[in-house]
Design goal:
A five-stranded mixed β-sheet has the order 3-2-1-4-5. It is of the alpha/beta class and about 160 residues long. The chain has a single domain, classed as Nucleotidyltransferase, domain 5 (2-Layer Sandwich). It has five helices and five strands. It is about 45% helix and about 20% strand.
């Protein structure tokens, strides 16, 4: 099974691709991780088009069986609406490719990986390293967060 984890954002969308041999019940292995970045000098609409285009390329390249997206919870921020809109672009693109999608709020991701819904970013990143048997934390943070979302999907299956 191939799982694509996504951490939504307007400037940067983190992604992480995991591979799991379900018959052997192996631990997930990281196939790829990184970010989709958009040009801050462009309008929001153009940036959404960039996100959709780059996600389509990732979907064609990695052919995930399942996508997991961080469910945004609201807080007061000047970019809240833009992030929610970018998340909508991700969900729409996944639907167009008919990829089953699950969503998890940050607290559930932290609980699944670090054992506490109030874990800090470092604790979650350490758990990602441990679960994927990595020697160092994935960079940038958005990619590490996306791997955490993907791992949560594997743990919650």
């Amino acid at each position: 099974m191939r799982i694509l984890g996504l951490d939504p954002g307007l400037a940067r969308v983190g992604y992480g691709v995991l591979e799991v041999d379900e018959q052997r019940r192996n631990q997930p292995e990281m196939v790829d991780c990184g970010i989709i970045s958009t040009d801050a000098g462009r309008g929001e609409g153009e940036r959404m088009v960039e996100i959709a285009r780059d996600l389509r390329q990732l979907l064609r390249l990695h052919r995930p069986d399942l996508a997991a997206v961080e469910k945004f919870f609201f807080y007061r921020s000047s970019n809240t609406i833009a992030v929610v809109q970018a998340r909508g672009v991700l969900i729409m693109t996944l639907a167009r490719f008919q990829i089953p999608t699950v969503e998890y709020p940050p607290m559930q991701i932290k609980l699944a990986l670090a054992g506490s819904g109030h874990a800090d970013k470092g604790e979650v990143q350490d758990a990602v390293m441990r679960e994927l048997r990595l020697n160092e934390r994935p960079k940038p943070d958005d990619a590490a967060d996306a791997l955490a979302v993907g791992l949560t999907a594997w743990f919650q299956r």
